[in-house]
Task: structure prediction
Amino acid sequence: MSPRRRILVTVVVLLVIVAAAAAVGVWRVLGSSPSEVSLAEAVADAELVQEDATPGATTTVAAADDESGDAAPEGGAGDHDRDQEYVVVVPEDSDTDAASPSDDVATIDDINGGWAVEAETGSVPLEEATGSFAGFRVDEELASIGAFTAVGRTGHVSGTMEIVSEHVTSVEIEVDLTTLQTDDRRRDGAVQRALGTSQHPTATFSLTEELDIEGAAVTGTAIMLSAPGDLTVNGITRPVAIDIQAQLVGSVIAVVGSVEVTLADFNVTVPQVPVVLSAEDHGIMEFQLLFRRR
Result:
């Protein structure tokens, strides 16, 4: 083979390698945004919680590995262990004899009373979160990639709900923002700084008007509502109306919801990361919650 031909072949091979590497990189970035929350997924999780669980059992689920290899900014709250495992624990007092979602045996008395977020089952690797979790979605423009939706989630959610005569009279939810994870450590650190979690580590939501769930609660029919309440982020409280869907699934109430928020309303600046050319000044807060009787 002549020197010129050898050089040409070498150049072609290098171009193929570079193109393949770029394609893999694009696929990894564009493929890393989880889908939006859906009631169907929440119902499936609710069925698993009560039907497949054994009291006292534990299951270890490996968290999604961070493939970036980039460390979070020094001292950033996002510098957590992405190789940790999430242990799914089924409470000892779980009612394994609870009616399945197909057994239409619920009564108003079954619904009335206090409910609490089920936070001891499920896991939150970013791509396949299950159980109860909350998070955000923000559209970005990435260098050499283009449009991308950044997603952050955490399973560190707690809260209560009160139901009286088929009316939701109270909802109080708290989320530990310091445990939010995205697909990139660099973004994690920027998110923590933007949210001011060193001073305000939690976000809260408090229902401000009763919700009428008459009929749907007893029959197990899916229901769509707008839930007005006060959302507190970064120490600032604003009124919001969250679009929610809910369904009684045996002994569990599955709820999903989302609301668009303007970051500036909560004194949150758009996070700055080297690979991000720009990001929207608004985003979506979303959640999936599974409630059990207290």
